[in-house]
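INTERNAL AUDIT FORM
Audit reference: QA-55
Scope: verify that the stored structure record matches its stored sequence.
Auditor: D.O.
Record contents follow.
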Amino acid sequence: MNIPLDPVDFLGYGDVFYLEIPEVEGIHHMVVVNTCPQENEVIVLGVITSKVEKRKEFIRLAGKNPLSLVEFDYKVHSAIDCNNLKEISKDNLRQKIKSGKAQVSDPLPPLLMKQIFDGIIAGDAPQRLKNLVQNLIRK
């Protein structure tokens, strides 16, 4: 008997999806930033953008901590604004995967994820999200 595996049940921090969500214009790569996404009802995503200079300028003008923008090379030079995290329910992500509206992409390496977690702590993400990150850092 073949029981199909549910990819949402095997999510880990650093996993990347290429998908569209209503809060973000267009389709983007997004990285899972929950430290234990299997234990949470929602998946917290960092939006990967190639518009690095535009995000830098926004953060500067908004008076946000510059450490909250994490730059790196993914497919192209990219960044994550750690102030601007998004959430998607597990059911919604599951539906997007099943319908082909979310594709799995290459995960981000652990050292980069540590920088992203530090950016979340430095930024103004909601405290409940920061708590998820701080739990990983304490381990």
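Auditor finding: record pair retrieved intact. The first strand starts at residue 16 and ends at 19.
Action required: none
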